[in-house]
Amino acid sequence: MSSSFPPPPTLATAHSGLPERLVDLGTESKTRLLSKRTLPESVPRQGELPVLPPDTTRAEFNQAIGELQQILGTEHVDINDKPLVDGWYVEHPNTHDAFHIALQDDLVSSAVVYPGTVEEVQAIVRWANKHKIPIYPISMGRNIGYGGTAPRVPGSVVLDLGRRMNRILNVDAENASCLVEPGVSYFALYEEIQRRGLPLWIDTPDVGGGSVLGNAIDRGVGYTPYGDHFANHCGLEIVLPNGELLRTGMGALPGREGADNPTWQSFQPAYGPYADGIFSQSNFGIVVCMGMWLMPEVGHQSYVITFPREEDFPDIVEIIRPLAQQRVLGNIPQLRHAIQELATTAKPKSDFYTGPGPIPRDVIQQHAATLPLGAVSWVFYGTQYGDAASIATQLDIIRKAFSAIPGAKMLFPEDLPADHYLHSRVHVCSGVPVLRELDWLNWVPNAAHLFFSPIVPTRGKDAQVVHDIVVRLHAKYGFDLIPTLCVAGREMHYIVNIVYDRSSLDEKRRAAACMREMIAEAAAEGFGEYRTHILFADMVASTYSWGDNALMRFNETIKDALDPNGILAPGRNGIWPRRFRGKGWEILGSEVEDAIAGRGIGPKSERKA
Ligand code: ADP
């Protein structure tokens, strides 16, 4: 393997770096991925730079940025006028969407600023109100597949909170909780807890480089019993769009002699309306610190159950439902398709199939047969928790339940080679952040991905309806279907990963069309997405239309009350402030494909014909 790529930064040198224990793996992963890149590292940019915020002349922008430099210091304000570099996961850009689905230059900021304190965040908010310049907060900016660090409105000023606000403010071992700033990654939190020798777990998503805070408020998930991140946060501190500072939950009650409230990280709702919810997946405030619960260390046992037949999918879902409702299943398990057994080898698709279009089912089976799990169709990844006796009892119940599926087979880590993906799940499901999930990005050159993530009832027939939609549309648009189902007792996140070559406008157009049709067809069945890429936000928001769009009117009412100048992340989650409404900013239907064709993503009147 070529060794021309330098190792990624470590936590010792960058808040977004890797822990030492992962540097070699990270270097390998980076080299493997970047050595297959055919896109140049950067391309010259067109037009005058930086791209300006809306309704702002260059002279006004320069004047405003000068003021910002005075407030923060010039070294904490970067103008986005240099070539755009997509980088890779650990060295990700904060200038644009590294996994661009539109043109690389479409979703860009005018500048990136780095506040170091809450007071500086407040000062930036006041500055934005004065100049009516939109600002877009990010924590770590690794929201890849959902827009990364890109603002929805081109020319917004990105607030990269993580670079200078990355302290672990408190770890309370007795309460099993912590209080973190936006720039604390799962890697950093995990390493700190290890350093202190505390018997506590964090809960990490599949890859550990994201911000604990950013992921929770975007309602991301992980895989220990504390896997619902927003449900396990406790207390927020927020800078509102008018610059005021707010504490939610028990934090609203001052502690003794000005101290933080002693139950801020203990009780979520406090008294009165539970405000936290409106600060998740929204543009109502900038979260500057967050409390999070940690799970006391416990025994754990990961396993896989394999199923040989494609058509048993709905029956598998039927078996999971009662096991999850009874809480026999220890975490939110994943049901994956055999294609992932191929993709998590980190080999490119071309090693398995060089024909046109998606890799056929029989070819997947043929290759799966040579891999450790054998010729399987579906693979269930679960983990049980507790002491050895209770885990044994749980596993008996689970084994018995799944034995109703012909050919079902349960395997444990010791049954599989050391490089099998199950070993990575053992880590993730016991709160150890890793990088392994990046491996399937080697599937195509210049890989980027989009997630289609509808919420579906945990019922075989509903699961089959969505499955049929995604199978048909993936075939229509020529993509491999890479599904991961996170299955709970009453609903499942049916997550589809469209992996596309971002050097190919045709692949991007097809990926966008596939997304658009999946969103529409799923909505027609009553299924909506829990999260989406910023370019599809209007489309997804518009599907939540019950009561003549009552929910969006409610969101807009809050938005206008909190943010009358419309400065905070306009358009995020489809919520446009009054100043932007009725001006054609929304991207609906085939307009996403128009953007990929180079017509722009600004208001309709400014898009090219
Ligand atoms: P990650 O933690 O996965 O790196 P990001 O930092 O990219 O995630 O955050 C995900 C999204 O959540 C951002 O694009 C932004 O819209 C929103 N967000 C992140 N951090 C904050 C914050 N501190 N306050 C308000 N919104 C935020």
UniProtKB/TrEMBL annotation:
Single Gene Ontology BP annotation: lactate catabolic process
PANTHER family: ARYL-ALCOHOL OXIDASE VANILLYL-ALCOHOL OXIDASE (AFU_ORTHOLOGUE AFUA_3G09500)-RELATED (PTHR11748:SF114), D-LACTATE DEHYDROGENASE (PTHR11748)
Occurrences of domain FAD-binding PCMH-type (ranges): 105-297
UniProt KW Oxidoreductase keyword: yes
InterPro entries for the chain: Cytok_DH_C_sf, FAD-bd_oxidored_4_C, FAD-bd_PCMH, FAD-bd_PCMH-like_sf, FAD-bd_PCMH_sub1, FAD-bd_PCMH_sub2, FAD-linked_Oxase-like_C, Oxid_FAD_bind_N
Gene Ontology cellular component list: mitochondrion
Oxidoreductase recorded as keyword: yes
Gene Ontology MF terms in the entry: D-lactate dehydrogenase (cytochrome) activity; D-lactate dehydrogenase (NAD+) activity; FAD binding
One Pfam family in the UniProt entry: FAD-oxidase_C
Name under which the protein is recorded: FAD-binding PCMH-type domain-containing protein
